[in-house]
Write a structure and sequence with these properties.
single chain, 255 residues, alpha/beta, Rossmann fold, N-terminal domain of TfIIb, 4-stranded antiparallel sheet, 6 helices, binds S-adenosylmethionine
Length: 255
């Protein structure tokens, strides 16, 4: 059944995230941290378009980039179903270019650490800088490992869309590969639709990045200046100085 595709399962399992609240937060960042009028936005590693479409609903010119062809097709179909004008490019976030620079870039749900090599991360920042106007903001939600234990708990939840239900189990291996500086994240999805069932297990290698390393990388690449760090999508949720974070929302500005 069409519904048992990976993008549909993923999109259902993670639909609990409020795209409205997150885009409200991004708009607040724009008001607070840039004078550039934002009309065009780049959603890096846009996935199934969970946030991409919310920007389109608010009238922004939105361009998504994702390297997974099935996911790109799914996001395009969702946009078509809502009669939204969304441009999705199937490309690697390490090496892509846009016809015109955007005013703002975003990157949600820890997609940066899918790049498991620090040189790729550096090249990624250069590619995004190229895709942005001067002074444009890049807002990223990244997972860091300062509080690695925080995520060794297994999480299980169920999300439903009419008669389609997905029970997801998320966990990550406790060990970091000392040679590669990576760890393994696992997600299992049990989906049911009436009498049909499917079971899908994803194993993803991710970059084990400390917050200070992230900051050093930005400094080393040189094309962005960090303006502010949050630990949530809330304008008062500034990351405390002495935090041991597991997640950071970084607001960077292109130099
Ligand atoms: C955790 S999902 C997040 C998707 C979306 N940002 C969201 O919040 O729903 C990560 C996405 O990154 C994409 N991805 C991973 N590596 C990529 C790369 N090198 N270039 C572009 N997209 C990539 C995957 O295909 C996947 O859709």
């Amino acid at each position: 059944m069409e519904i048992f595709t990976y993008p549909a399962i993923y999109d259902t399992a993670f639909q609990f995230r409020s795209a409205e609240d997150t885009v409200d937060f991004i708009e607040e960042c724009v008001r607070m941290y840039t004078h550039i009028p934002v009309r065009s936005i780049l959603d890096v590693a846009c996935g199934t378009g969970h946030y991409t479409l919310e920007f389109a609903r608010r009238g922004y010119r939105i361009q998504g980039v994702d390297m997974n062809d099935d996911i790109c097709q799914y996001a395009r179909q969702k946009a078509t179903d809502e009669s939204l004008d969304v441009d999705i490019l199937c490309a690697d976030m390490v090496d892509f270019s846009l016809p015109r620079p955007c005013d703002l870039a975003v990157n949600f749900f820890d997609s940066l650490t899918y790049l498991t090599d620090r040189r790729q991360v550096s090249r990624h920042f250069l590619a995004v800088a190229d895709a942005l106007v001067s002074g444009g903001l890049y807002v990223l939600e990244i997972g860091v490992i300062d509080d690695f234990e925080n995520h060794n708990l297994e999480e299980v939840w169920t999300e439903r869309r009419r008669d389609f239900a997905v029970t997801a189990t998320y966990f990550r291996d406790g060990a970091i590969d000392p040679e590669c500086g990576t760890f393994i994240e696992r997600c299992a999805f049990r989906s049911t639709c009436r009498e049909h069932h499917s079971y899908l297990v994803l194993k993803q290698k991710k970059l084990a990045l400390y917050f200070y390393e992230f900051a050093e990388l930005i400094d080393h690449v040189g094309c962005f200046t960090p303006l502010v760090y949050f630990d949530d999508f809330a304008s008062e949720a500034f990351l405390p100085e002495d935090a041991r974070p597991w997640r950071v929302v970084a607001v960077l500005q292109k130099n």
